[in-house]
Amino acid sequence: MTARTDETVRGTETPTVSFTDSSSTLPARRGGVHRRITPSGVEQWWVLTLRSLRTMARYGELVLAVLAPFVFGLGFYLPLKFVMQLQGIDYAQFLMPIIVLQSMAFTAISAAQLAAQEGTTGVTSRLQTMPVAPAAPLASRMTASMVRSVISLAAAIGFGYLIGFRFSAGPGQAVLFCATALIISLLLCLGADAIGCLSRSPEATAQALTLPQLILGMLSCGFVPEEGFPEWIRPFVRNQPISQFSFAMRDMAQDGVTWEVFRPSLFWMIGLAVICIPGAVWAATRRE
Predict the structure, then answer these.
(1) Hey, which residues does 2 pair with through a beta bridge?
(2) CA-to-CA distance for 76 and 199, rounded, in angstroms?
(3) Is residue 18 one of the residues assigned to a domain?
(4) Do the domain assignments include residue 30?
(5) What is the pLDDT along the chain (288 residues), one digit of tens a residue?
(6) 20 pairs with which residues across the strands?
(7) 91-102 b/e with 16+ CB inside 10 Å = b?
């Protein structure tokens, strides 16, 4: 504001202060439309997925997804091939389902480690304080895990073709074989992600998940027929999920699976879905 002193009449000087609005000399404020940015859940999912894939690539997880089926398959194929040939078993066809299933199990362990690592480094807590869609972090981790599963499945099938495995039942059964493996992988990854979110320790999570999958794998009909086990343990070996998945996937690759063989595997997958999906959603969206 500016002030001005005026002289009044009668020879007396009376300071009179008058105010003039100087705001008229300032440029007029420009009006504008303030648009509120609404985050897109799809874009958040995509960005977080790329971040998870970069993390996997940086730590060699994608390379391991390729190497694991080869190392795992050779470790059992070479010493047992001639023994199984004496029993009239084409061991390449027999072994292939368990190689794929073990590769999917290792993918689940990687998913648990990723979830635990994000919790340990504070990424999960930070995302919960930001305008991020609640389902985006879990969906991104599952997408990255499925990318690894596809890579591992392709590597396992490639190894199988090197040792003589073939899809003899046609393309439809081959697609069903791959779809079954990926569905099992997704369900295992969901359950492992829930464990990783709760444990917040990548090392402890990996150790906790490695032992059960090795025990179930060894005590299954994936490596040797049921007759190769003692009589007292055969009911468990025959009916546990790894054996049932192996039976169904072996038929998909060879003669075509029947409903009678596929039904137990379907029930096991439904049971896993009932447990793993709600558990993963709850663990990923809970607030501490």
Answers:
(1) 20
(2) 32
(3) no
(4) no
(5) 444 444 444 444 444 444 444 444 445 445 455 556 566 788 999 999 999 999 888 888 889 999 989 988 888 888 888 888 888 889 999 999 999 999 999 999 999 988 888 888 888 778 878 888 888 999 999 999 999 999 999 999 999 999 999 999 899 999 999 999 999 999 999 999 999 988 867 778 888 888 888 889 999 999 999 988 999 999 999 999 999 999 999 999 998 999 999 999 999 999 999 999 999 999 888 876
(6) 2
(7) bbbbbbbbbbbb
pTM value is 0.83
The three-point CA angle 152-282-102 to 5° equals 20
- Position 171, amino acid: P
Tokens standing for residue 38: 């609404």
Contacts of 127 (CB under 8 A, 6+ apart): 136, 137
Helix, strand or coil, per DSSP, at residue 37: coil
CB 163 within 8 A of CB 84: no
Q: Helix, strand, or coil here: 20?
A: strand
C-beta separation of 260 from 266 below 8 A = no
Residue 15 within any structural domain of the chain: no
How many other CB atoms are there within 10 angstroms of residue 160's CB atom? 23
In angstroms, what CA-CA distances link 279 with 90, 247, 268, 288? 40, 28, 17, 16
Q: Which helix (H) or strand (E) holds 135?
A: none
Cβ–Cβ < 8 Å for 129, 180: no
Q: Is the Cβ–Cβ distance between 202 and 117 less than 8 Å?
A: yes
Inside any domain, residue 3:
no
Give the three-state DSSP class for 2: strand
d(CA 265, CA 260): 10
Q: What is the domain extent for residue 55?
A: 42-283
How many domains, the chain? 1
The closest alpha carbon to 180, from 250, 260, 230, 124, belongs to: 250
